[in-house]
Amino acid sequence: MTSVKLKDLEYFIGCNQAENFYYSMVNEEIYNIETIVKSLSVSEEDFIANNYYYGYIMLPALNITEAFDGFISSLNNKKVSKFFKNVDRNNVLEYWLKFDKTFHVGIERRLWNEYYADYIRKKAVTWCSDYGINPK
Fold this sequence. Notes:
- By secondary structure, this protein is mostly helical.
- It has seven helices and five strands.
């Protein structure tokens, strides 16, 4: 069974650029796609279409609106839920700005930071489980 350092995986997932990072099943490290295609002497398109064949797995992508919704729901506060009820989830920038303005300081910011770190950790652990990778 292959393994990965959970802290490293969380860091790269937290960058929210999953399409740029891949886990090597051969040497159990995470690499940027540019480094991989250069070392394999293949096009980026070929690599993306055949990454598993080359021994790499794309890291999981984050869904920031899913994280925002989960956090808001976890607060169990009807006033806050109502405030965010009509936000256009397809307009991520608008949602982000409204969210950040609402939770920019105080205990809510600390709670968000804790929630988001846990959200990333769960994504990492689920990804490891899905691919049979041991998080260490």
